[in-house]
Amino acid sequence: MGKVRMNRNIFELFMRLLPVQIFLVVASGLGDMVNGMVVGNCLSPLEMNATGLSAPLGMLLSSIANIICSGSLILCGQHMGRGESKKVDQLFSIAHIALFVIGAALTFLCFSFAGWIASFLGASSQSLAYTTAYIRGISLGIIPLLMIPCLMGFLQMCNRSSISLSATLMLAFFNTVFSLISVRGFHSGVFGVGAATSLSRALCALFMIFYFMKKKDLISFNTKDFDMKILANMIVIGSPSSLAGILYSFRNMMINQNAFLTAGDNAVNSLAILGSCDSFFDCFNVGVGSVMTMLASVFIGERDSRSLKELMKTASIIGMILCTIKISFAYLFSDHIVALFGAKGELVSAASTLLVFYVFCGFFNIVTLIFMGVYQSLGRSTYCNLLYPVNCIIVPFFCCKVLSKIYGIKGIWAAYTLAEIATILCMYLYACVKKKGLVKNIDEMLFLDKNFDTETKLTMSIDQIEEVIDVSKKIQDFCKLHGIENRRAMLSGLCMEEMAGNIVEHGFTKDSKKHLIDVFACVENDEVFLRLRDNCIPFDPHSRMQMYDEKDPAKNIGIRMVGKIAREMNYQTTFGMNVLSIRL
């Protein structure tokens, strides 16, 4: 029964985070999507070609943001899993200082050398001026482009998903309005479209920054928190995300150039349309992968392999269902979708074929993202970095240079699916080498260290008041069994009873939803560590510890007692869950 209830809590937590992550992915690509529609319907084919050729640059810039964003959020999850919530403020400050400085440097480089970049991306003499203008337009918004994913990630971690959603809607609205005004009103062409995107991103980022400044109790920013050693660790942990983005941008350049040689302008314009709407089709997969990585980092911080494997199972099932819906939608409506971006005549058929080829890789990509998320959270950055060249360079190169000679443009389009299959095969073969035999289960695929799980640990779940006393007794017996003296064992059980009972009594009754408390206890180095994680409304016991009512001296006495007994007590609300950590 405990395992079933734990699974339910993981499923509920996953489903709570997933919609916001999906919206965040869509938000990151809204600029390209709106630009594709405006350019495709209001400007010339050469200007559409320019936005498609510039797409790898956007991926490269996003990958730079991901290295900081991913690294900081993984570290946050690990610290939270260990009950070290005070580290979050420092990681927030370091991440955004780094992103601002890097963004400023990239803005100068991209604006100053836009023509050279356009040539490198493969712009012809006819499209060079348009591509250069578009790059200069989007370069003005590089700083907010880098900061938006990280700001949204920290907002979601702090259970402020509604602010991220508001920022997403703001981005979509202003980008659409500004792009139409620049094209219809000022006749500024692709430069105006790019500049409109930059302005809308700046407004979106400022909206979130002002919210953090207003909410002093949320996360504090302090330039004195900057630490190069922590930044270096952040970069190492986040490097797989960054390398993937960099290599994907090179993959897209290679596919762009070979597609043009194989099938001409229609192939390049098909890729431009795909680049405009790929965030819409990628949002399910990337959303599942992002939630997987965030939660995996927490369970890895807790050294809880059982929860980690249940998370992988949940992500796989949900991901496959979403991929089925996505593929069905693309297959049925591909012609209508590409028409939204100005496709006409032969381009409709060409772009529709590419779209169907592209979305089919989703099934295999889900598997890749889940395992990569776990490996990255485990700190196996080098291993991940060795896998990405297979996915992004080796297989696409084979498709462009070999399969295209046999199957034409479809041989190139097959690169997306074949790359994912090859990556999964490489992961399996490597696990077989590590085992020195055939791998038969998930444990062997993850090749966790033998001491990964805390041996002296206890996990339980509570969903009704009658279970609180039983859990308290089990905590006492568990502590005694592992060498904790009677008094501290008794106090450990008492702390758990008081806090769990308070959650059931007050948190479970605030709404009509089903609630659950995940209880974790472990003994290490003669220290007892207790953790309660629940899905009730936010409740910080520290605020109640300061309250004293002369008319009712017994009010909050249990919480105040735990505060005095505990050597350390930390509370955080993260990913929509309350997490209380107690050390005795």
3D structure, described in words:
By secondary structure, the chain is of the alpha+beta class. The chain has two domains: 16-442, no CATH class; 457-583, Heat Shock Protein 90 (2-Layer Sandwich), CATH 3.30.565. The chain contains 21 helices and five strands. It has helices at 2-42, 45-81, 87-112, 114-120, 128-139, 142-157, 161-185, 189-214, 228-263, 265-302, 305-339, 346-360, 362-377, 381-407, 409-413, 415-435, 442-446, 466-481, 486-507, 541-545, 557-565, and strands at residues 457-462, 517-524, 527-534, 568-574, 577-583. The chain has a five-stranded antiparallel beta sheet, with helices on both faces. α1 (2-42) packs antiparallel against α8 (189-214), α1 runs parallel beside α11 (305-339) and α2 packs parallel to α6 (142-157). The longest helix is centred in the N-terminal third of the chain and has 41 residues, at 2-42. The radius of gyration is 26 Å and the shape is globular. The model is unreliable at 545-554 (pLDDT under 50).
* Cα-based radius of gyration, to the nearest Å: 26 Å
Helix content: over 70%
Domains counted in the coordinates: how many?
A: 2
Characterize the main sheet: 5 strands, antiparallel
Q: How far is the first residue's CA from the last residue's CA? A: 29 Å
Oligomer: single chain
> Which spans of ≥5 residues are poorly predicted at pLDDT below 50?
545-554
What is the global morphology? globular
Widest sheet: strand order? 1-2-3-5-4
Q: Helical stretch count? A: 21
Percent of residues in β-strands: 5-15%
- State the order of secondary-structure elements, H for helix, E for strand: HHHHHHHHHHHHHHHHHEHHEEHHEE
